[in-house]
Design a protein that fits this description.
- It contains 15 helices and 6 strands.
- It is an alpha+beta fold.
- The chain folds into 4 domains: 128 residues, no CATH class; 63 residues, no CATH class; 71 residues, no CATH class; 45 residues, no CATH class.
- The protein has a 4-stranded mixed β-sheet with strand order 5-4-3-6.
- The longest helix is centred in the N-terminal third of the chain and has 40 residues.
- The protein is extended, with a radius of gyration of 27 Å.
- The chain starts with 10 loop residues before the first helix and ends with a strand.
- The N terminus is likely disordered.
Amino acid sequence: MAEMTNTDWDDAHLVLLADDFVTPVHESDEEFFAWLDTNPCPIDDPSDEAVEVAPMRRRREFLEGINLLKLDEQALQVQRIKWIAAEAATYARQATNPIQESIQDRVFMTEVALTLGVTERAALNLIERSKILTSERHLTLAAVENGVITLGHAEVIADAGLDLFVELAERFEREAIELAQRMTPTKLKAVLVKLRERLQPEDATERHADALLDRKVVTCAGQDGMGELWAALSGEDVVAIDAKLDACARSIKNAGGEDGRTASQLRADVLVDLILNDDSGMRNIRPVVFLTAPTATAVGGDQPAELQGQGPIDAETARKLIDLDVPLVE
């Protein structure tokens, strides 16, 4: 970790980061491609001899080779982060007032999105994380550069460490890097939530009250006539809702009413029933949704319809909605 103890990163240093983006070919590249020349891919050379010759040595060389390639990929990812942060700083310096700075940020985000072929939201996340990883979390970026952790770990650390005071942030980062070396990014995310709370217990009530202001329910369209419902709620409400879904699903299963449905399917059906149906199981809420369907579909055709806010749905589901007197647009 000695390579990651330098904290003398400032705005002037960001200006120089772009110069690091163009990197020479590493010796590891040459080693890996030399290994490929003498170890053809099994897909290209599927003969039994190619796979069976010294299998343990071949497997060891294969693992070493893909590890070298992983390190080179991470090095390029780090260089991209540095370059984006440096360019973002350049854009910011060009603005003469807050309004122009906001416009510059928007233009830069759009350019990054178009260049990388990602959404503007993804581009914004990349830009913001690049700024964080080249400033407040430069030790984390150095850990990625040195192959200690992956970029996925670094992104989790950057997101989890937002809004911490300087003293806590430094301690949080060092502990987070140590933890990241022993677990996957997904598991690290949950662990860092606990670490963050352990480091700042004094103002937990105030922070929770502020976080509650951002509670929300979001929907998005899925494939094959499906959709997703996502909610950000108080932790105690999430636990209570989860427990009630489990209890209702168990009750249905114990009563023999699951009809072959899985636990996940039962939980989903219980959620719909609790929100939309009355005690007798009848639909007591008729939401206003708009359906665009061919006339032939309404009378038995197979052409899909279009549900506003969700997208295509199958003809049978469309006819069920028509029977519920859903406003229809032909």
